[in-house]
TrEMBL record:
Binding site for Fe cation: 251, 302, 369, 560
Organism of origin: Raphanus sativus
Cofactor(s), names only, from the UniProt record: Fe(2+)
GO cellular component: chloroplast
Record flagged with keyword Secreted: no
Family per similarity comment: Belongs to the carotenoid oxygenase family.
Record protein name field: Carotenoid cleavage dioxygenase 8, chloroplastic
Length: 567
């Protein structure tokens, strides 16, 4: 088990005023080479931000200086494992935090990509790492902590991968190598869900009753956490019979009163649309939609959208492949396959009755993130005639998935290799038409032809809206390196960028009492080329910097966040 090595670090006033607690990732027994290197990197990065000379650090740690410096230069901190299991402390704020901003921003993401001597392959494989920014009367109390999933605990204990992650499969044990039935055992373990990970590294949500839950696409990866201490509370126990289906959308839609999500069916390709009341652990099936394509698996459904009265169910040509799920070695599309000839569809279900009110064929598309959707009454007769649904669309190009391999992210320097993405706008007629449209909402060049990791003003969820906050790009780049505010009405874009940065999802928090959609702040955590990182606050309207606060160490890239208001 990891032991807690608590270091009191006295920081220079420039960065952190208070003393901070660090818990490093190291074992009780001999520290192996990888961990040793890791420890050195932590310390080097941690202290170098404080402008303490490398020689001083190295004399404390008794290591040659050269090694740490070379390690440091290897790759961007965005793609470097977090160097300690947890940390907490106060950040020094430059600028002024609005007095109304009181509450906690929590971000989840894969932050640890190596275990024992094994380096993970893909961005989505890493172990969940939570980062918090607690805003309190103009001050920021921060911290990070690894999530104690069964997958992470087992990996820590056995110093190897023990569960199936996004692209990684544990190696069969030696005793199983020659066993002709071990393959059958693996299939049983996969389809019972036993071998699947619970590494909830994708998102974090605040349920209407105040519970805070980390999520991934496996249902067993629904894990409750304490948003204050970042401690893992335990598994969220769904009180229904729907866990047999093993996977669900990583992005449920949550309001103060309910939660909606989609549960794909790998056996009879289709999706269950389910609803859970705030305060309950029981999901009710509102309806089921059958896939229209003749493919073996349902389309991958990372996220979906809702309007006031409907749930939109995407059926992408990027489909689950049972064959690829069973493979030990990854394919170029991992557990998925690309089947454009089988068609691309969007289905619309009534929230009230569970009936399918529209099911249209649309041009092929690849999206992970729906931005928002709403109903439009084109004839002014008091009845919705069309549904508009916007998403971060990758021009029906699946290359983005493989671009997120860690080796690719770490090794491309300066090349303009990020595939283009846009805001894709679906128009889904509600008059029984067979076809829907997919158009580009705003000229993609305006946001650097990159578009993903989006948020909106949550008060406009399912309603007509105007502003999208998302990661965009300043080309050339191999990954989105800017924040963008897109006005989808005026088709204008504001960009915020600094050299060498990798910012995570810009998260919009509305000002209480605001009357304008963009009246609020945008929070993002930025990883810097020089190994540091900082939290940034932008004005939701002008998109200009209001405040920033440096972390005393570098944080890797993260995925999605949520806001927990202070009571
Ligand atoms: C662990 C298994 C699976 C897990 C799937 C996971 C963890 C999927 C996560 C998907 C994410 C985080 C997608 C994010 C996309 C972001 C993009 C494109 C950003 C672009 C740039 O800004 C299954 C695959 C469900 C199968 C079993 C095992
Ligand atoms: Fe996501």
């Amino acid at each position: 088990m990891a032991s807690l090595i608590t270091t009191k670090a006295i920081m220079s006033h420039h960065h952190v005023m208070s003393s901070t607690r660090i818990t490093t990732l190291c074992s009780d027994k001999a520290i192996d080479n990888q961990q040793r290197k890791t420890k050195l990197q932590i310390s080097h990065r941690f202290f170098s931000r404080r402008r303490i000379s490398a020689a001083v650090i190295n004399s404390v740690l008794q290591v040659p200086e050269k090694e740490t410096v070379e390690d440091e230069r290897r790759c961007h901190v965005a793609w470097t494992s977090v160097q300690q299991e947890k940390w907490e402390g106060e950040l020094t704020v430059q600028g002024k935090i609005p007095t109304w901003l009181n509450g906690t921003y929590l971000r989840n993401g894969p932050g640890l990509w190596n275990i024992g001597d094994h380096d993970f392959r893909h961005l989505f494989d890493g172990y969940s790492t939570l980062v918090k920014l607690e805003f309190n009367d103009g001050r920021i109390f921060s911290g990070h902590r690894l999530l104690e999933s069964d997958a992470y605990k087992a990996a820590k204990k056995h110093k190897k991968l023990c569960y199936r992650e996004f692209s990684e499969t544990p190696k069969p044990s030696r005793s199983n190598f020659k066993n002709p039935f071990s393959g059958v055992g693996e299939i049983v373990k996969l389809f019972s869900g036993e071998s699947l990970t619970d590494n909830a590294n994708t998102g974090v949500i605040r349920l209407g009753d105040g519970r805070v839950m980390c999520l991934t696409e496996t249902q067993k990866g629904s894990i409750l956490v304490d948003h204050d201490t970042l401690e893992t509370i335990g598994k969220f126990k769904y009180d229904d019979g729907l866990c047999d289906h093993m996977i669900h959308s990583a992005h449920p839609i949550v309001t103060e009163t309910e939660m909606w999500t989609l549960i794909p069916d790998l056996v009879k390709p289709g999706y269950r649309v389910v609803r859970m009341e705030a305060g309950s652990n029981k999901r009710e099936v509102v309806g089921r939609v059958k896939c229209r394509s003749g493919s073996w698996g349902p389309g991958w459904v990372h996220s979906f959208a809702v309007t006031e009265n409907y749930v939109l169910i995407p059926e992408m040509p990027l489909r689950y492949s049972v064959r690829n799920l069973l493979r030990a070695e990854p394919t170029p599309l991992y557990k998925f396959e690309w089947c454009p000839n089988d068609g691309a569809f969007v289905h619309v279900m009534s929230k009230l009755t569970g009936e399918i009110v529209a099911s249209v064929e649309v041009p092929a598309y690849v999206t992970f993130h729906f931005i928002n959707a709403y109903e439009e009454d084109e004839n002014g007769e008091g009845k919705a005639t069309v549904i508009i649904a916007d998403c971060c669309e990758h021009n029906a190009d699946t290359r983005i998935l493989d671009m997120l391999r860690l080796h690719t992210l770490r090794s491309s320097h300066g090349d303009d290799v990020l595939p283009d993405a846009r805001i894709g706008r679906f128009r889904i007629p509600l008059d029984g038409s067979k076809y829907g449209k997919l158009e580009t909402a705003v000229e993609a060049e305006k946001h650097g032809r990159a578009m993903d990791m989006c948020s909106i003003n949550p008060l406009h969820l399912g309603l007509k809206y105007r502003y999208v906050y998302a990661c965009g790009a300043k080309r050339p780049c191999n990954f989105p390196n800017a924040l963008s505010k897109v006005d989808i009405l005026e088709k204008k874009v504001k960009i915020w960028h600094e050299d060498g940065i990798i910012p995570s999802e810009p998260f919009f928090v509305p000002r209480p009492g605001a009357t304008h959609e963009d009246d609020g702040v945008v929070i993002s955590i930025v990883s810097e080329e020089n190994g540091g990182s900082y939290a940034i606050l932008l004005d939701g309207s002008t998109f200009e910097e209001i405040a920033r606060a440096n972390f005393p160490y570098g944080l890797p890239y993260g995925l999605h966040g949520c806001w927990i208001p202070k009571h």
